[in-house]
């Protein structure tokens, strides 16, 4: 007698339940997703505002060759199957090109390839570079209920591999599309270059490190351009504001009066970050000079490594003298 599988009445019920559950797999949101209550695509305006001022970030603030500025902003509307970048994850080759050189093309190709392969991308958007640390740029983008997540990034210029951005931000919840969102941005290190300062020469990190947030105490090195050990947290270095556009009855978009044009200088209240003076170590004592039989004087010096700013601790004396016995006396 051949092998056969017999299903009893109770087994039939279990099998039917399994079939029902399997048929609903596509109905259940993936882990980390929030069920979107919207029914139609919608359009958002996005305004990127640089807050990188010399008052807020006085240490090693780049004034020329090049001055403080931002690369073009690159963003994508997607679902949870696609990851543009993720804190504590590794930067892709495209992200490396964007954050080290400000070149978006490789990352755009990566996004397009992911969209074609997994249907995980709804659209790519970009905004023009900002030629000052405190300027603005803006653009429009569209999301739909199946692709409600937004990720974006912009390079901090100049820097080794530092950038700002948002990852997997959900513009939709069970009540529908969010009307307006404003997010403060803080610097990230992409883990692809080992420079400590804004103007560090290219020095590739091998093997590549993970993407980490830069704080006022991490990396814990006095040479780091964002190292402010007296602060609890860094002030935000940029901000993005996304606003849902209203639609007329015929479907045309209302323009938003608060969407600013590219490179407008922003008049925004900025907290001043005190920067204390930093000096070198003392030099060795110089020769003791004076008349034999009498006390002479010797001198040592130090120099300023970092000028104070914003009412930080002023520089101390840079030279010091003391009494001594004159040298070469017989």
Automatic annotation (TrEMBL):
Signal sequence segment: 1-27
InterPro entries: Spondin/Thrombospondin_T1 (IPR051418), Spondin_N (IPR009465), Spondin_N_sf (IPR038678), TSP1_rpt (IPR000884), TSP1_rpt_sf (IPR036383), TSP1_spondin_dom (IPR044004)
Occurrences of domain Spondin (ranges): 32-222
Entry GO CC: extracellular matrix; extracellular space
Annotated keywords: Cell adhesion, Disulfide bond, Extracellular matrix, Glycoprotein, Metal-binding, Secreted, Signal
Cell compartment(s), UniProt: Secreted, Extracellular space, Extracellular matrix
GO BP annotations, alphabetical order: cell adhesion; cellular response to lipopolysaccharide; defense response to fungus; defense response to virus; induction of bacterial agglutination; innate immune response; mast cell mediated immunity; opsonization
Presence of keyword Ligase: no
GO molecular function, one term: lipopolysaccharide binding
Protein's recorded name: Spondin 2
Lineage, broadest ranks: Eukaryota, Metazoa, Chordata, Craniata, Vertebrata
Gene: SPON2
